[in-house]
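Hi L.,

You mentioned the student needs an example of a multi-chain input paired with its predicted structure. This one should do, with 894 residues in total across all chains.
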Amino acid sequence: MVALIRRLARGRGLAPALLLLGLLLAILILMGRATTNSAKFGEMYVWLLLFSAIGLGGLTLLILYNLIELIRLYRHRVPGSRLTLRLAGIFAALAIIPVALVYGFSLHFLQRGIDSWFNVQVDRGLEDALELSRTALDLRMREVLRQTLRISENVAESDGEQISRRLDELLDAAEASELTLFGQNGRIIATVTLDPSAILPDPPPDTVLLHVRQGHNYVGLEPTGDKGFHIRVVVPAGRLANEERQLQALFPITDRLSLLADAVQAAFDSYRELIFLRAPLRASFTLTLSLVLLLAVLAAFWAAFYTARGMVRPLRELADGTQAVAAGQFNKQLAGGGSDELGFLVESFNQMTRNLAQAHEAAQRSQALVEGQRAYLETVLARLSSGVMIVDQTGRLQTCNAAAGQLLGIHLQDYVGADSEWIAAAQPSLRDFIDIIGPHLNTTGDWRQEITGPARPGAAFAVPGQLAAGCGWPARGARRRVRRCDQPGAGRTGRCLGRGGATAGARNQESTHAHPVGHRTNPSQISLKQFDEEQGKVLERGTHTIIQQVQAMKEMVDAFNEYARPPRLQLAPLEANEFITEVLYLYRDYPVGVEIKLDLAQEPLWVNADKGRLRQLLHNLVKNAIEAISDGKGSMLWVATRREHIAGADCLEISVRDNGPGFPDNILSSAFEPYVTTKLKGTGLGLAIVKKIVEEHGGWIQLETLAQGGAHVVLRLPIFHEAAEPAASPAVPLFRCTPIRRPPDERVLYFSR
Amino acid sequence: MPDLNTIFSKPALEALENGVPLTIELEMEVRRRRSWLWAETIYSLTQRFKMEYHALSRQYLVNNLNSGERRSFPSRNAALDFMGQINGFPLLDQGLLTSNEKYEGALRAALDIESLPAPLRLFTYLSDDWRLTSEWYTWSL
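Structure written out for the whole complex:
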């Protein structure tokens, strides 16, 4: 019971609430009947009233409890309570107004209706009818009084048996139904009657006898039984032997007269009663009507609460779900919200969270992949014996690796963030070095120079500074990682050889570009040998050491190449259009302000490809494009496929085009090199990975900035023929790009012994 | 002899004159008197009378609902006297009473509002005018 009340109080339990309302309605209907038909329901009227009062009181309390609870939630700003309260208020107001109108009119008609039952003319007519009946009967009564008086005179002197005989004769003559002679104290002297079953005569009331003893005559009309009348006449009948005697005569009324009189009496009676009961009747009806009104209002309130709660519940769940997603909980699924629009909303939300969870998972996988590659790269970089310093435009040292410090003979990490002038002041031995590289900080292009360091007597520095743009590690991460690395054998030589470019230095370590590194290490050995011959035997020992170091570096890089080699491709036939649609599905709602348009070939295009690698390729391309153009409004991204016939072979061409600013000129030449990026947080590996993947699949890729603006990436992959050898050697030219430079933000100084 | 007039308030009389039948209950009890405690009721009996006014004949009709006896009276007082006079009513066998105890008879009249028409009844519950019960009239046996 308590549980039921609690359920009801919390706005649940539709069935018990409906049952309660139905019960109350039944009680009120019975009450209405009881008011009009007292015979049937009159007995239980009071109980009905009591029960309905209790039921309505309970309902009122329930609604009050609901209201208080809702207001409490509203004050605590519980989500959904505001809407619930508002909806409940609206519903209640909507219900009350029509109900109140109906009540007002009903009350009015009720009063008018009851009043219309009564009519002055009907009233007077009935009274007149009654009076007429009385008059008609009065005539008869006067007549029978005279007859009785005559009989009384006849029997006045009689006595004994003579009386009975006389009375018997007179009964017939007078057409009376009973004649009785009373003596002292109502003693019956003689009685004759027409009714053979009557043993005792019908005595007159004591007051009548008293009245007659005082010498008056009594004549009265009396109803007999359920219907019909008789006339009772009592007159003094003289005095005999000191005993006062009274004669009573009963005369029947003829059937017709009796019937009419009865009808008049009945009509008059019920009319009078109705008039008398008018006020109570009206009050009773009003009471019943008011109870019905109360029930309707309370039911409306209850329904308002119930409906409002029902409508707000899915909204509240949606709000909770949205908050959960905002907090990063992407696997949030909501319970079904029904078949209406709210249910559709809930289903859409569930679909959204599923997609989000998938996208999140994919992003995490990509991030883990990138992180892993970066970790390998940095480990290798830190172990390089070449020194790497990154200096910004103002000459401030951004970061350096351990080898740089050891080569220069100072603890260079202490100067990270310091101005070059400040470093020169603190370390006078570096003055020459800084003076030499200073002018080159603001120039473009590679620069290479051999520097003889004073700090190491007899040593010569060859510091080729190749300055390149857009290259850089996240400064903080780089610093941390550099400190962690050690530099075996560094600082033992007095001669340094710089080679390659700063970007090349970084590039050399990148897994996907491991091959060129190996090739470039060899020339450095050669140049070192030439250098050695030119300088003579003075530096023979040092040169030997350098050769040893470079060899060690080469071995290490080769080892890294081996280590960082990507897993074997798992080639399988793949339908490109379907695959692209599936991959790009993830981006349909993702970028704000970027619209992706697919322009896919009608025919199915099959390629033999590694699904995972190709997916990464597409992600990199699309993500790069979106991030490059997403700041603009109304940006567009087109992704198209078509079949191309080039160099005697069919190939799939995928083109990704946007209407953004296009590739910066200086990027275009080196876009496929690792660590080339225009983004603040990019790793610069995206396009390098793309190129690598294209190569792996025997494909071809091209970047360009369109004349009308916008970046355009075109890549071609060989079409898969079932009969043909899968992934044959590339049939199309591998790699082409147009180098254009631009002033860099940072320079990377790369140097080594 | 209880004064039955006391149980007729003004609204009750008004109802009677307007054709509403009134039901009157006569409660009769035989009690054994005790020294310190209230008297013990050893027998009780209720007689119900229905009284109504007959407008045509200007008579008051009394119907004893227990016995079915019907009488008509030219005045209200005559009708009331009839109801109040219980002569030789076979109430209790004399042999059931022990001679060394003191007994009393008690009589009380009340208006039965349960038998009033439903619309009127609602108000009789709320109004003192309709809570009509006479005092106990007692006599020694």
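You could point out the following to them. Residues 4-140 of chain B form one domain. The first helix of chain B runs from residue 10 to 17.

Best wishes,
N.
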